[in-house]
């Protein structure tokens, strides 16, 4: 028994890989306390939930948008989040991403990203839009599925060098309700097994043909009695070990474009879609996109694939210029458009790229006209306090008596962000003094060392520089 692995190195997205563009790493530390919009089942904002405090109207509005996106009624439209700095616009957008779940593509970018020396501005926008259109592909494939009962790599002398050994093949035992089977697999599959961190007792499936390995979960025979665990337990698969199974993969049009720009061989849908254009192309062109669209449309018509419109989030949208804005208008009107969420902290501002066109939020009126606008409002002292408390928990800091009140007051006077930013340095000061707890005196000292934006601005006269002003 041997599973062939001829196509396991196809240039298309491997079947078991999470497409890079739709996976969302939570690397944005300042927002790591935000877990969602914190709405009730009826869509009302709870005063403090899912890491979100206050800002009820904006949260409820975003909740409506999330519902519309989920029911696919908002694609090709735009939402604009407008408000003063530090009022939670970026946080709201990330909460929308959380609410949509991992299956709906969410493609965040910052307005200034379009200014690249190598890529055209419009190209950057077009690519972001492609990355925000998901495609769910259903395929029936021949697979081996079961609970791993045995996993033995067989070693052999390395013929190329005298040292070390290589793996000649790997023996894997799979068990289902109906029976067991032992497979002798190619060493390249062993690498995939190692990558998925598969051990005895896991339920896995291995695709016949591509040799892709996917871990489904841990067999529930191994379920432990812990209440809190990150592991997902799955029942022992039914049927034979070797069977036909319907597999679902999520990719984005951006992934398909990229895969086609670097085509390689293979037979399954992903590889065929990944080899429309053979020449060693490295750039995604409009022609290539049209070809991808055509094939995708074909699969959609056959019922093999389903389009999942996602979200493009453009933070600091006032950084775009007129050319980008007109292009954005046309993108919004294209038949395969995702939902667009924009954010800005500007009031009336000059539109970039024009001499004297002043528009609300620095966004031309024709784009504004296509937007639903949601306003974020400044926080009260009490709300600042609650956010601070959340952050202190996330950062693992202990606050002494009166610290929260003091910081809340600072936050009200300066900004929420200033108060949040004082937390970390204050904790360093405390630990220098050998304390685990932050005390009020640390905050006072911080205030001597650092200025909030408003105080700092007030110290420097409008016409003076640093030399003359202070
Ligand atoms: N309502 C809230 N509940 C909890 N945390 C919040 C809330 N609003 C803002 N924050 C936190 O405050 C900080 C500043 O907010 P955020 O970065 O979202 O502001 P912004 O509106 O995007 O500002 P800017 O216009 O400067 O980009 C972040 O760490 C964010 O997670
Ligand atoms: Mg922001």
TrEMBL record:
EC number: 3.6.4.12
GO annotation terms (biological process): chromatin organization; DNA repair
CDD domains: AAA
Region (Disordered): 1-24
Catalyzed reaction equations: ATP + H2O = ADP + phosphate + H(+)
SMART domains per UniProt: AAA
Any GO molecular function: hydrolase activity
Sorted UniProt keywords: Activator, ATP-binding, Chromatin regulator, DNA damage, DNA repair, Helicase, Hydrolase, Nucleotide-binding, Nucleus, Transcription, Transcription regulation
Transmembrane feature ranges: none
Annotated function: DNA helicase participates in several chromatin remodeling complexes, including the SWR1 and the INO80 complexes. DNA helicase which participates in several chromatin remodeling complexes, including the SWR1 and the INO80 complexes. The SWR1 complex mediates the ATP-dependent exchange of histone H2A for the H2A variant HZT1 leading to transcriptional regulation of selected genes by chromatin remodeling. The INO80 complex remodels chromatin by shifting nucleosomes and is involved in DNA repair. Also involved in pre-rRNA processing.
Family recorded in the similarity comment: Belongs to the RuvB family.
Name of the protein: RuvB-like helicase
Source organism of this protein record: Exidia glandulosa HHB12029
